[in-house]
Structures are given as C-alpha cells and as structure tokens.
Amino acid sequence: MKSIFRAPLAALGLLAFLTSCATTVTEKEKPSNTSQLMTAPTATDARRPDSTGAATTAPDARTPSPANGIDATPATAVASDAASASALAADRPDPNALSAAAASAERAKEKKMSVVDYRNMLTAADATLKGNPKDPAALLQRAKAKSYLRQYAEALPDYTAAIKYQRNNPDAYYNRGVNRLMMKQYKAASVDFSGAIKYRADDKESYFGRGVAKMQMYQYKPAVADFTRAIQLDSTYADAWEYRGISYSSFDKLSEARRDLEQAAKLNPEAAKSLKRYVGNEEGKAPIKPAPAARTGGYHPKPGQH
Fold first, then answer.
1. Are the C-beta atoms of 46 and 113 separated by less than 8 Å?
2. How many other C-beta atoms lie within 10 A of the C-beta of residue 275?
3. pLDDT over 80 (residue 227)
4. Closest alpha carbon to 241 in 215, 210, 216, 262
5. What is the per-residue pLDDT across 158-183, written as a single tens digit (0 to 9) for each?
6. Which residues contact 164 (CB under 8 A, 6 or more apart)?
C-alpha cells in the first residue's frame, strides 16, 4: 500500500487524511500525498496479492513460497506449521509471516486489483471458510476483500477473528488498522498498528499508519516520532516526510517543517502543495493558514478510491 492516505492519504488509499484544526489540516486541506494503505481498484489485469491467479484462493501467509519454482514437500510444510504453532504459543512473530518488503509488495499488488478481482477474492475466501470457519488466512483474505469493496463495518469481525486464531500475524493487525482508520476509529487503529509493529518491527507502513492515527487525534509530537521511524526505515518515503513536516508545523517547528516538506516535494512533486500551505514556498512568504474546524477530518479518498 503506495502508502495509505491520499486523497491524500497513503493506505486505503493507505494509508492520507488529516485532522482539521486551526494549526494544521482541515477536511479540505489535506496533504498532496497519493499513496494509500489500500487503494482503489485501477487495473483490470491485476493479480491476487500473493501469486499470479486472480480467481484462486490466496495461500496462508504462514506457508513459505516455493523456492526456485519447486513446491514445498509435505515434510517442509509440516515443519513450517510446527514452527508457526510454536511461535504462536510463545507469542513470538510467526517465522513464516511475510517480511516487511514482501508485505509492502503484496499491498502494491492489491491496490492495483479490479473490483471483479476483489469480489473473486471474497468468493474464494467464503468457499474456504465453509469447510474451515476458523482458517485465519481465509478470514484475513475475506476481511481485506470487504475492505477493498468499502464494506468496512462488515470486514471488522473477520479481522478480529483472524487475529483471534493467529494473534502473531502482523498483516492482520495492519489491515485492521487501516480499516479502522477508514471508520474513523483512530485510537483503535493506533493500537492495531502497534500490534503490527510488535510482530514486524521494520514495517515502515505500520509506523506511518500509526502516525496518521495520532495526527487524527491531535497527537502531533508522538506522530513525529512514528514518521521519523518510517523515514529511518526508508529515506525515500515521501509520504512520511510530508506528514512529519505537517506535524512539525502544527506546533510551530517551522524550520523543521520546511526542511521535511521540501524533501517531500523533491521525492513527490505533489507535496509542494503542502509546502506552500504550511510553511510558504518562498522566503518571506507566509504560509496559508487553515481555518479552525471541528474534529471531523478523516480519510476521504478521491472518487474511485477506498
């Protein structure tokens, strides 16, 4: 997910939406960021998140992909299941969970899928769950399909069930966090992103998502810390630079805000809009001051986006 929040969020079109207030973003004054945690369907030839067939059921994230095109043997699969069970019992990260890089790549594939693909994902997950209602991978797949189809309230129970049966899966926490951002449940979203970070500490998008949730709750200084960690993990993360700059501007750290927003604009030209709005883009030119607004800001994707 190009990140969640863009309408300007970066995630579900993850992961950009910001709170409106006198010192920062109003509902109509969001960052230029276009990345998203889960984005709108745009491609008609997209594939399922983990493979090359859009209509087939996605495999359990705990099962490693075959190496060099050779299928895993039953013995390997059993060993993987045993390792996962042991990690779950000890509340350690699942050793077979996706890496941060692989998770990011999977989100990028998902955001390119079409509405038809999402519906096929939902149908396949339903079929699996008829035979095994407690399958955490199928529950997560169905929840994500519902989220992509904007059925956020309906997706929430499936995310919760997936976590119940596999509480050390960072992807379940991350995606539920995005879903809760869409529902404006910011405190709960922040907790979910923390869960994702617990089991995958190098996931830049989870730090970014938690930072956005904190911004929505006016916790700008803590948000800066999360955006900083995301930048440490990826110095080219334009959305993190942009949101950190906006956060700095909210408590009058204008020098830091200018630095971050200038860097964001270098990485993503659209961020120049935030640079102009929050710190001014020329020496001696005052920034545009957002008018005070109620706490109704949120993730408002552009038409066609989640």
1. yes
2. 23
3. yes
4. 262
5. 999 999 999 999 999 999 999 999 99
6. none
Beta bridge partners of 5: 10
pLDDT value at 288 more than 50:
yes
Instruction: Write the burial class of residue 289 (CB in 10 Å: 0-12 exposed, 13-18 middle, 19+ buried).
Output: exposed
What b/e string do you get for 182-205 counting C-beta neighbours within 10 Å, with b at 16 or more? bbbbbebbbbbbbbbbebbeebbb
- pTM (predicted TM-score): 0.71
**Alpha carbon distance 282, 59 (integer Å):** 52
- The first and second tokens of residue 181, run together, are 């951002």
Report the sign of the C-alpha dihedral through residues 156, 137, 304, 184, in that order: positive
Reading the block at residue 175, the tokens are 């995606």
DSSP string of 55-118, one letter each residue: TSPPPPTTSPPPGGGPPPPHHHHHHHHHHHHHHHHTT---TTSPPHHHHHHHHHHHTT--HHHH
Q: Residue 3's beta-bridge partner residues?
A: 36
Q: Position 103: which residue type? A: A
State the alpha helices, DSSP H only, in 149-250: 152-165, 170-182, 186-199, 204-216, 220-233, 238-250
Alpha-carbon distance of 9 to 295, in angstroms, equals 17
Distance CA(273)–CA(253), nearest Å, equals: 18
